[in-house]
User: Fold this.
Amino acid sequence: MQATTQLIHSIPVDPLTGAISVPIYQTSTFVQEAPGVNKGYDYARSGNPTRATLENLIAQLEGGHTGIAFGSGLAAIDAILKLLQTGDEIIAVDDIYGGAFRLFEQVYKKFGINVHYVDTTDPEAVFNALTPNTRLIWIETPTNPTLKITDIQAIARIAGRHRCLLCVDNTFASPALQQPLSLGADLVIHSGTKYLGGHSDLIAGLVVTKEKELGDRIKFLQNASGGILGPFDSWLLIRGIETLHLRIRQHGASAYAIAAFLQDHPAVDKVFYPGLPTHPGHDIAARQAKGFGGIVSFTLHDNTEEAAKNFVTSTGLFKLAESLGGIKSLISHPATMTHKSIPAEKRKAAGVADSLIRLSTGLEDTEDLLDDLRQALDKVKVPRPVGRAAVPVGTAAQPVGHALIPG
Assistant:
């Protein structure tokens, strides 16, 4: 059975009424027949049937054992960090989501948990950063926002030999394109707010573990700390996941067309998109994923914050907003938005320049999105650079077919 068919039919029909949509169990508690004798649920913080359906669904999508749903992506990250103790160390990707950096540095550092930030695209750099106290390796692939690609299998081998956990933030790829657990990761995390929800109408976080024992530990932390996802948002997330594979196809197709267009525009300096054959991580991305996703980042030749701000306020269809992965296209300026909590020197060292702009392609017609970018770029006056060539849309080099999910 193909992945899309399996996904749709793994969402159960309600056994009580036959409802084809998962019911929203909007209740705080459950009546018991006797103390400790119940129908599987006693209190909604500990378990809820709607949330349980979502947790089982994401575990299946990622090929893992246990899924755990939280009230936000950061709440999910927080639960994983609670597996550690004072003196433990983390190796994390240098081009890291700003919220994760803030949590690492401003919350957990004071508890004696230190983080070493390295370029995880270089397995040797990860190996050299290991210490006897390393307990967790944290990677994003593709990264946010420069879309670096890390070889998950290579890092998994390092983590396995050192007996530390490997967690992969799979938000940008989604399980429709990439399944890190099958490549050796121990944990996968998602901001369900993004591609899984897909409609910019909820906040959610998800963790999937490869093994039951680790899943039980995080499930305990979910209940003990109480950062659960409510039943209505769980239902919204299930509904979003139902169309994930279809949405990802269009996101990826538009993203490639946009990346190819930007690559040859005189106002653009660098384009970051792993689907382009010129991307340094292209071959790894093609090997470990089924497509390249819907995010494109780029820098302007006018490498100033002012130029970037002028550009992100000049688009019409691309709406200036935090977040990504929704049906409407979004644009952001990471240096002053998603990554503003990272010190400038660290941010720039990781490749997040002042003029870097991040695009999240939605489900609008691709030509309309290109027209929107074209009119905004026409306002950026720079000389045309010499010796740059585009990869024309529709040529043999275009990996659009790769971005489509079989079946």
